[in-house]
Inverse folding.
């Protein structure tokens, strides 16, 4: 809890940090409330008074961001998309960091053969092309949100594991670890009671960057047409605009989802960087 | 490196055969008679035991023999050949440009601390990094190709032109004209990371004693900047090249789709759409090979930059 408090306090100190936290908060609120405040159902086809499909309509009072080729309301789709972007992003980021931190801790602390094997495995995963891998998994096992999250976790933990391991390597030489050992603490206790709390700030930074990456990747998967067919995501909105070849006639269909991704992801980046200064004081700029 | 590639091959084999969902069922039509199904399976070697399939597969891949496409029956190795080069000319020049320009701009920002331009540049670079690259590509096509009519809308050469050879094609103005837009978009996307990293690395270096010493010796500013500060700040940047290279090669899937660029990534996506799994498997493998070799080359480069690193 102490950690979360310092996290917010640190980020709040800088101007960009403050603005980013507010923007991120707004995105979270929209993700929670989105489905309730959306003016239309995301996949509903809208007809006008004359029972004609409102196709590719530019922004109007009824449809603030216009409609798609199939007469769907773009604004409602964006609001629903916020939910799937954040759910996929947060679950993936937490999973990735949980796996990466544990592998990094064990590998760095135990050293020797365990370390060699774990790092070999990490190297192999580093050679795995990550977006193509996810697409192949989705193509074979079927497209669903769960599969997207699992596939992303499989290819994203590798960099966290490396960073954490490097940190553990230097921490385990410190005096407090030797002191704990003298008191007869087991490896498990030393690792999770003494060392782990010290890498939590670094883990938080990694959660932020993994979150940013997961949101962009979810959008890319959607854009390639492999998003969950039962969910509306920002990437899949851009995909349908691209696939219908109407995007060049209907900029209101393409521009908003991209801006949504850009705003959410850059706020996460700025939050991560603001907090990174705690972990690495050399970065402190002002 | 060989071990990584071998592990990759094994992983791929199990991925394609053991994941829930059987890709071979897409070729072998379930409505056919059992004899016809068996004959088709035999034709693609799918009737053998798993272990034998695995050994044949590894032996074939080691010789770059990727079998035949399920859809066109063409040799997959032939289909891959030109695609590999196309991906490389798209990804590598812009990656190099992004790193060189990013390092220079980042160093410049750190050298002249503060000011509005610093905030603005960091902000714009972050926005480009946060925006989905395919979306920026689409907007670039919308603006530069459709509204201003400056660049062609995707493809590698004007459709219909048949180049004498892939190699000669790269030296035509038509090709460069098609390359320009994806090149710019990809560079803009990749530049943020080296730029910010160089900036923070330089900020650390500038505070060190040897810079102070160089100042006291009365060296010219330019010399301190390039010879002393920048050179020492480049190392953290160099360590990131393998990772970024891997991301860039993997990201070719997306950027090639937007610009209809006939590279490995697009080939893979087309293969997935047509359930042509020898093509998917081979292009996936080649993307992995490109990543692994790129990483290796980048490691060697790091050794040149930092003579303290010794490879055994």
């Amino acid at each position: 809890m102490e950690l979360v408090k310092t996290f917010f306090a640190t980020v709040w100190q800088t101007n960009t940090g403050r603005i980013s936290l507010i923007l991120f908060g707004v995105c979270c609120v929209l993700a929670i409330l989105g489905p309730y405040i959306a003016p239309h159902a995301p996949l509903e086809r809208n007809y006008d008074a004359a029972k004609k499909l409102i196709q590719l309509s530019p922004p109007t009072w009824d449809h603030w961001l216009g409609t798609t080729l199939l007469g769907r309301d773009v604004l409602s789709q964006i609001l629903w998309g916020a939910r799937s972007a954040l759910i996929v992003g947060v679950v993936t980021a937490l999973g990735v960091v949980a796996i990466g931190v544990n592998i990094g801790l064990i590998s760095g602390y135990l050293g020797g053969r365990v370390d060699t094997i774990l790092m070999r495995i990490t190297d192999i995963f580093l050679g795995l092309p990550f977006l193509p891998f996810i697409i192949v998994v989705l193509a074979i096992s079927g497209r669903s949100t769960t599969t997207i999250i699992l596939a992303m976790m499989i290819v994203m933990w590798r960099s966290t594991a490396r960073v954490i391991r490097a940190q553990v390597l230097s921490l385990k030489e410190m005096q407090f670890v030797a002191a704990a050992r003298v008191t007869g603490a087991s490896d498990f206790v030393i690792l999770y009671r003494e060392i782990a709390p010290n890498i939590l700030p670094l883990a938080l930074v990694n959660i932020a960057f993994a979150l940013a990456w997961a949101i962009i990747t979810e959008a890319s998967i959607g854009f390639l047409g492999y998003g969950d067919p039962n969910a509306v995501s920002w990437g899949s909105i851009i995909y349908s605009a691209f696939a219908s070849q109407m995007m060049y006639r209907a900029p209101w269909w393409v521009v908003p989802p991209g801006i949504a991704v850009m705003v959410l992801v850059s706020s996460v980046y700025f939050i991560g960087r603001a907090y990174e200064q705690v972990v690495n004081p050399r970065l402190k700029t002002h | 490196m060989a071990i990584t590639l071998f592990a990759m091959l094994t992983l791929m084999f199990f991925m394609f055969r053991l994941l829930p969902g059987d890709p071979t069922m897409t070729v072998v039509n379930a409505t056919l008679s059992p004899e016809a199904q068996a004959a088709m399976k035999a034709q693609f070697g799918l009737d053998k035991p798993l272990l034998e399939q695995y050994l044949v597969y590894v032996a074939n891949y080691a010789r770059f023999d990727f079998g035949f496409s399920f859809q066109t029956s063409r040799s997959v190795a032939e289909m891959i050949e030109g695609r590999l080069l196309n991906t490389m000319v798209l990804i590598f020049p812009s990656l190099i440009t992004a790193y060189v320009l990013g390092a220079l701009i980042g160093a410049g920002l750190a050298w002249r601390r503060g000011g509005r331009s610093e905030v603005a540049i960091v902000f714009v670079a972050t926005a480009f990094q946060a925006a989905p690259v395919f979306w920026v590509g689409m907007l670039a096509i919308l603006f530069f190709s459709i509204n201003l009519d400056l660049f062609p809308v995707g493809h590698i050469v004007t459709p219909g032109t048949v180049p004498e050879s892939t190699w000669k094609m790269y030296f035509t103005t038509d090709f460069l004209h098609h390359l320009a837009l994806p090149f710019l978009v990809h560079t803009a996307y990749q530049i943020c990371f080296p730029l910010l990293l160089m900036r923070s690395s330089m900020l650390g270096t500038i505070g060190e004693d040897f810079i102070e010493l160089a100042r006291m010796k009365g060296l010219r500013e330019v010399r301190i900047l390039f010879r002393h500060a920048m050179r020492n700040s480049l190392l953290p940047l160099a360590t990131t090249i393998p990772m970024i290279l891997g991301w860039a090669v993997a990201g070719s899937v997306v950027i090639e789709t937007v610009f209809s660029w006939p590279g490995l990534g697009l080939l893979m996506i087309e293969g997935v759409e047509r359930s042509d799994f020898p093509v998917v498997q081979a292009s996936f493998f080649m993307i992995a090979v490109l990543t692994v070799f790129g990483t290796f080359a980048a490691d060697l480069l790091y050794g040149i930059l930092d003579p303290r690193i010794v490879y055994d």
Remarks:
- Chain A is about 75% helix and 0% strand.
- The mean pLDDT of chain A is 85.
